[in-house]
Amino acid sequence: MSSVVLALPLGAGAPAAASPRSAADGRGWIQEDLARADAVGARGGAGGLRTAVGTAPGASLRTAAAPAPGAVAVFPAHGLARPASAVDVRAEATAGAVLLEARGVRADGMWTEWRSVGPITVPAGAARSGEEVGGRVRLPEPVDRVQVRVGFGAAEPAGAAAVLESVRLRPVQRTAPEEPSAAPEGESSSAPGGAEGERPADRPFSARVFATRIGHVGGTTANGHTVRENDHFVALPSRRGLSGRGAGDYTVRVCAEDGERRCAYAPVWDVGPWNIRDDHWNAEREEWRDLPRGLPQAQAAYEDGHNGGRDGFGREVANPAGIDLADGTFRDGLKLPTNAWVRVDYLWTAGYDHPASITAAPETQPVPVRAGPGMSHAERGVAAHAAAVDVVCRVPGDEVTGPQGASDVWFAIGAGDYVPAANVSGGDSAPTCREGEGEGEGADGARDGGSGG
User: Fold this and answer.
1) Residue spans with biased composition (Low complexity) (predicted)?
2) Tens digit of pLDDT for each residue in 71-98?
């Protein structure tokens, strides 16, 4: 089941302040306000959120054969009185299937990946009266803020419009032994992958994968973004690392392998290519657990005949792509003449010490990344607006005026990658660079982190 999903835009590199905890019903349940949902493919009404007609699964997926819920509703984050290690989610809907997802804020202030339960099929009779379904979503680590998104509706265009009538959640604190899940009989009570207690690594996981170009200008991505000419974002084949519209919750650093090191920092705004449940960067994958970490299923199908040479939808895999690049990232960021092998660092898989967000003006134009703290240094790539980065250190350099004002401070955001502080929101807590710090490849794991593929 594909989904057109988004998370709330979070702004400057770190999660936005969570809304005050909603009133519970005495049993720890929080009732979501449907009017506050950020919905894609749905419209509000007296009975709840109703699916719209013609919702697409995302620009990168490129197939009408890929099923998708008619809509997705994303609710504001909730601050919790005590850390929770799981979330019970209930949704009342009519027709089709329901996909329940949740995430939380890590100790370093960044979001965990989304984890899910479902899709759960709503009985046909519920088309008139609604049916509550639900399950427990276990999170990778205890969190003190949680957020829920719900995909709902029939996949078939001929299906009746579905209505999401209510959503409620209950944070679950760690217990020993853990209380039984309230997931429906026969349904999974937690998403595979990411065992409880797992912590981000010191360095981001890195893999060599095959990159293709998205194109599809004017199309809609899986998080609701309308694709522009020379756009700067990427698509990965899993909803677990899908950023919100306009946000960089999950950002990659993708580097060309053409002899001249050139990298682009870009948010994940779409799902694809080929698969939608292939989080190949995780040690515990959602699907295709027989494959090694870092090896996309499409690559295994293309090169070794995995799954009979077909993807998760049964299509014959025509190329080994594990990442799709928007036109701007592909052509201007990496200057690729054609599809190519690239090195991808999945930045959110590591802990952040000094989280920050790139701010460009205009937002459609990325910030040049330079080899040193000044305009005379060679351009080594670009950083897209909203890309979440971890500032290594700060150093004086050329004065630049940008969205954050005028400043002669430059931030090292990777191995030999510098951007002006005038184009960065956050990162002020970063220390002054020591001699040699932030210089050269491998300084932050961009070239010598975990590898796969």
Assistant:
1) 178-193
2) 888 899 999 999 999 999 999 988 788 9
